[in-house]
Structures
1.
Amino acid sequence: MREDFYTRLKAYEGREAAVGGVGKDLVNEPMIRHWCEAMGDTHPAYAGADPVAPPTMLQAWTMGGLSGHGHGGRSEAYDELLALLDGAGYTSVVATDCEQEYLRPLRPGDRITFDAMIESVSERKTTKLGTGYFVTTRMDVRAGDEPAGTHRFRILKYVPAGQRRRNGTAESAAASRPKRPRPVVNRDNAGFWEGVARHRLLIQRCEKCRTLRFPWLPGCNACGCLEWDTVEAAGEGTVYSYVVMHHPPFPAFEQPYAVGLVELAEGVRMISNVVGVPHDRVRIGMPVRLEFKRVDEELELPVFRAAEGSGG
Ligand code: ZN
């Protein structure tokens, strides 16, 4: 049965995913400048009298924007393939990675055209997110008639690992919830986790220029010095930014939850959970205070509790 299904999926390999695509705008300097500003890329080749576009903008020239493409959109074959996967229960989708090759620089005035094909459908794979199939599309981008580059884009269509729990009670879901992922501890950040074990949040400090840095890194971003010591964070901070995670569902977490980018009083920022306030009450600028939360018998994590009254 499964082989039959996979054979049906494989039959889509080589079929078109998008045909006759035309870039909405010619390659142009304002879009190049906006991209460079957003990326913080100050390379001189992308500015000045005769700029080229950053190669990684390749896909940007093919995008339809909010209004979409009048043509060059998704093909029937691609829609059919996704519908086939949806129908078999692989209803969730996550973009996993992309690969690009660059064949020719793009310059202001270049007219972009593109086609895309369904390059491959993987065998059925089980990942931490769930079980499903990787679908890779390959887009060939041209400037005028010349090949300019290739953009491969891979998605996973999957059955969420936690889905079967939907019929159970919230309590049984919590009891059977997998443990949270373990932090990756290596020689560059071991000191941080040793600090956490002693309920101290340690920030690295460059011994030469005294610049604070977080997360932990082997060297100083400001001066390159490899020597460092630490300062202990006082524990005061504010929410610099945040996102509320709804999707994709990770079985170890109970959605939705707020992930905060917390600016510590010392000036560095760290990503952590904001606790003590409902996820929809987290706000930028909200004062928070460090505490250490025992997640399970092996893991304690620094988290940030919203200050008294912040919840409104
Ligand atoms: Zn330094």
2.
Amino acid sequence: MFKPLLRHTGTAALCAALLAISCSALAADLKSGLKIAFIPKQINNPYEVIADDGGMAAIKEFGGVGKVVGPSDAGASSQVQYINTLITQRQDAIVIAANDANAVVPYLKKAMGQGIKVVTFDSDTAPEGRQLFVNQANAEGIGRGQVQLVSKLMGGEGEFAVLSATPNATNQNTWIKWMQEELKKPEYAKIKLVKIAYGNDDDQKSFVETQGLLQAYPNLKAIVAPTTVGIAAAARYISSSSSKGKVVVTGLGTPNQMRAFVKNGTVKAFQLWDPNQLGYLAAYAAAALSSGKISGKEGESFDAGKLGKRTIGQQGEIILGPPTTFDATNIDNFNF
Ligand code: RAM
């Protein structure tokens, strides 16, 4: 019955397109009109903007109502007022990149107490603060991978510093812990982590911290910034200083922010995942929870649109996939 109807409309192409759009929502069998709000670490961080855009694209795909609200700084409690407002607005789900593992927990618990589903993504809370955590990649793999990369770039010896985000950022702190674990291996005996500095995911502060590191540690051979804000600021500082070509800059960055520094030789290699896919996956996870398709238990699976079927791991964690290493040979293949 359906096919002839399509032929008669004379707008078969349009219908096919509409069908394709609603297909993933139908396949996932999600409730329609779900109200899902994203709270990034900070509203103006380019990485978070890409992630939020991915979330909004997914929500559009399954016919929900999405929005992004959040603070302009990554302070520990800066997200609390936004959570409270979303509770009042009776959202179906809150998807949050937490600025602190504990500060937001009482408020997220209040939300869950009122039937609002809570999904963390990018940066987790303590497990009691959420039902699911959508992680960009395995945290141990990210941390160990950063040390493996910087060691290679430093030729296996010398002093390096970490330029992190805020001192309370769950994601960076977990990665740094794994970096320190990796450094215990005998092959890194000649490498020394001399300082962990914090740029607070603020461009200017990260820039100034970079300058401070170079002054305080004249023998510094590398800076590892496991934050897209930090690595871009460090590269900008070093690219116009006498340290260019002497001090390695690496870490986690977006290809679009780092392209110029790879082209001008300041940065040889760095890593990241696709933030857009991270937000997209988090939105599908929130919708599956809100539609009663999953409850958050280990082993449950759900349909994540173009990312296919995804399964919940231990402690409610869902992993997007391994990071990519970008360098001069491949950076132009990426546009985010
Ligand atoms: C910054 C933020 C974010 C982190 C990336 C790598 O944009 O700190 O949380 O995942 O860097």
3.
Amino acid sequence: MLKPQATSTRELVSLDGIWSFAVVTTTDVDEERIWTGVIPPKLQAPVPASYNDIFVQESIRGHVGWVYYQRQVFVPHGWSQERYFLRLDAATHQGRVYVDEHFVVEHIGGYTPFEAEITNLVAPGQPFRLTVLVNNELTWHTIPPGRVEVGQNGERKQYYQHDFFNYSGLARSVWLYSVPTVAVDDITVKTDVDGTTGFVDFEIKTSQSIDEDRVQVSLIDEVGSLIYQTVGHKNRAVVKSAHLWEPGAAYLYQLRVEIMAAPGSGIVLDSYQLAVGVRSVKVIGNRFLINDKPFYFTGFGRHEDAPVRGKGHDNAYMIHDFHLMGWTGANSFRCSHYPYAEEVLEYADRHGIVVIDETPAVGLNLGIVGGVFGVKPSPKSSPLTFSPDTINDKTQSAHAQAIRELIARDKNHPCVVMWAVANEPASAEPGVREYMEPLVTLNRQLDPTRPVCFANMIHAPVEKDTITDLFDVLCLNRYYGWYAYNADLDTAEQALEEDLLGWQKKYGNPIIMSEYGADTQVGLHATLDVPWSEEYQSRLLDMYHRVFDRVDSVVGEHVWNFADFQCPTTIFRIDGNKKGIFTRDRRPKSAAQTLRRRWTEQKTYEKKL
Ligand code: BDP
């Protein structure tokens, strides 16, 4: 799915700004039919932003169900020859869009875009009332899953198994854009490298079937020189002495696709330009290769999370976060636990930051509900994660759709080197293999070029896990020294090493420690091993690093988490998860220096490369 862009043939109107906002108090939005009228601007909400922390009422912050967003929009008067679309970069978790009283599109899944053509609904130059209904309910059939229960006071409460706040609303941009009647609909690019030669395989879909010789494809380098040109929907560009997209040293070619009025006419009906990084990704033995060279991941698991705006995308935070990551020496991160805004991937493409791209499949695990997170235990009727009453076929269909939409959106980003199908599913429970295997197959069909992984949790150790053989890379989330052997780093060190050696022996795949860390209260200092102190966080990280350097198959370390982030409140999540290396307002804890030393100076892991 192409990101809308302004080109010589396309226009793009941002609908970001301040919208009228209302919380639905009736149970049935279809009865209320609010989109048929103007919503009084008693409350107004910014777009993009999660709405939860904007206001001061708990009834809004913790609201379960639908909210309304509304604004007026004009279709530019010059669009009489164009087709035009509304595009929402995300509506978390379910969005329904109305143009005046017409329903135009519905989408389920809170972190991927959707769009609808409205050419026949509003004439150029005319205004329309745009109403977006957004629902934040998570059920057994959504990804991520959750459930809504009615408490004794009659209030509906949302439960879920994941460890971050259920931020909701329109957290990413909304657009109105035009395309010509004959337009580029989609582009798929796959690249490969052989020595100094780069290969760019491309396939173009057009909105109407047109002759091959009307599709003109050009590859342009960073100084604007044309290095390849052809006609047709599908081909391979061979780039001799290619500038490769390398971690830390990105190079982006532009693939310009033009639809001509007639071959050789020089009249361009549509034009779209895609950034292309020429690189290869392979897993061979226990090494992860980028451009045939072993790569060692340093960096973080992250969240889209900031004060006030919640998961609302913000370019200032985004660029600052990239600079902070760069300062620590991070070369990569995981989009834990959902697809991030496309701007984030574009920035990573541009700056050579390596990304593991994850679906929102987090919390497919009832084993951790009562335990680690201290949330309400799973329903007594069905203690199993995978069962007809819990995670079932419908959840699997939603998960498959999440994989389709993630790959459709992100397949062309050179920064994305691996797909993560799920975070910490109950991979030792019955039913998990039946659930997961078709999804991994689907993922590989949709993109045969990138390795696939999932993040394994401690409750599914090597002798119990039943799905790891389906994947290419072992991603392990481990909390030795925190949830296990807290304040006992010596025992934690032994346990961690045994754990890693067990996986290494059984599978021989590359291992990435995809999460490790400790909650840390900034400003708490201690000479002894006191959990929550800044020193303990650093010592715990040092302990992991010693082990990583001793285990040959470890090819990456992603600390949990880049910054403190908001969670549902429990007795050990006061104002959020505090495992950040940076505070929520992005100030470094002492451990930032520990990482910076290791990732920019010592680099002892490089002996493996
Ligand atoms: C892991 C989860 C992550 C949590 C983390 C923690 O993958 O989402 O935030 O634990 O407990 O199990 O901090």
